[in-house]
Design brief:
This protein is of the alpha/beta class. The protein contains 9 helices and 8 strands. The chain is globular and about 50 Å long.
């Protein structure tokens, strides 16, 4: 049975400030009560107590990727062949899952793994020079990590969601995607089959998919259809198809007709650096569904 209204959350990345106090103050003053605690929030002393102070008074939270932000930055990679990075990545995810459970969230979501060794300053740039030779080994580590964390989440009553990677043209190797896992419909379906956990689902980032589809000459609508049964949530933003710009969207965005078939999914506005008026316009476009 479909909900009359979709569940709509706003990512912390949508706000102009990276300071959690300022973001929460804006939420309270503007009656924004559904917040995805996500990447980009500054790591400050007292961050978690501040967030917990407003839980259900009136805030409701999702937990995504690098939240809570680590004091020492690192690249979270569940497919890393570096023991220290992999250990840190899984420890962070377990902590975030526990936090999601504490907040009553239905899931914790995290980016897919990759066959590379990267530093925080490398992200958002060409990555092919960081690629490793043993792609199969990295993929196998990724599958095992996802299986382990999906079971950890399932034992605590929530789902574990993997977000599809964005494959920009500058990260292609001979016209193909070699290093970024779970980027296409086929790759997501393969991951789900290899992991084999009922607790694993997908956070589909439509901005990532738009860029990936153009880079690899794929049909984005067909990619969504291939994994439709796995989708629990959407990250929503728009771009020019060449890079992941995290732009705001309107009711005529390319992905809007698709969302009508996913009214049980959670919609997360992940356009960046918006004023409240633009956030409201994105909400209104979704509410019209």
């Amino acid at each position: 049975m479909y909900r009359a209204q979709p569940e709509i959350y706003i990512s912390t990345g949508a706000f102009k400030s990276r300071d959690i106090d300022a973001i929460l103050d804006t939420c309270i003053s503007e009656n924004i009560v559904n917040l995805e605690l996500s990447s980009g929030v500054e790591s400050t002393e007292g961050l978690l107590p501040k967030v917990k102070e407003f839980f259900e008074k009136p805030m409701r939270y999702l937990v995504h990727n690098y939240f809570p932000p680590p004091q020492k930055a690192f690249v979270l990679n569940l497919g890393s062949l570096d023991t220290e990075t992999l250990t840190r990545s899984k420890e962070h995810c377990r902590h975030a899952i526990d936090l999601a459970v504490e907040f009553g969230a239905p899931f914790y979501s995290v980016h897919a793994g990759a066959a590379m060794r990267a530093r925080p300053e490398d992200l958002g740039r060409p990555l092919t020079h960081l690629a490793i030779d043993s792609v199969d080994d990295a993929y196998n580590v990724f599958v095992e990590s996802v299986r382990e964390l999906a079971e950890y989440a399932g034992a605590r009553g929530i789902k574990f969601l993997i977000e599809n990677h964005v494959v920009a043209p500058f990260n292609l190797v001979n016209g193909k995607n070699r290093i970024l896992f779970a980027s296409t419909g086929e790759e997501i379906r393969r991951l789900a089959n290899d992991v084999g956990s009922p607790h694993l689902q997908i956070l589909l980032d439509v901005g990532h998919l738009k860029v990936t589809a153009k880079s690899l000459h794929l049909n984005a609508y067909q990619a969504i259809e291939k994994v439709s049964d796995l989708i629990a949530a959407f990250h929503l933003s728009d771009n020019d198809g060449d890079s992941d710009q995290n732009l705001p969207f309107s009711s005529d965005a390319w992905f809007m007709p698709i969302l009508k078939d996913f009214r049980k999914a959670t919609y997360i506005i992940e356009a960046y650096n918006l004023d409240v008026k633009t956030i409201r316009a994105c909400e209104d476009a979704l509410a019209k569904l």
